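Worked example

This section walks through a single chain of length 120. The input is the sequence exactly as stored; nothing has been trimmed or padded.
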Amino acid sequence: QVQLVESGGGLVQPGGSLRLSCAASGFSLDYYAIGWFRQAPGKEREGVSCISSSDSNTVYAESVTGRFTISRDNAKNTVYLQMNSLKAEDTAVYYCAKSTTCDRGVFGSWGQGTQVTVSS
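Given that input, the structure is written out below as tokens.
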């Protein structure tokens, strides 16, 4: 069964850090781009970051550039999102999904999401 499972969310104070994990099962991450997305209450889902399969090129939303870092460990079949200097506006449910490419592919196999809450 093809599945992506997110973990690592939680409650953190502004300025703090979290590392999210996106673990794949039923397929190898080696051949796919993996994207992180988030959806805050009352807002549309937005793309946060993506890492390509071939050469691990990365892209980031302007709002997280310089604060978030995406990486992949193909041996562990897992993609990570390191989030630093967190702000209240980063509060959302974070999802990962796979695609053929970051820029033109259609994302699928969405995980169930992990809640990130940034609050004092």
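What to look for: The radius of gyration is 13 Å.
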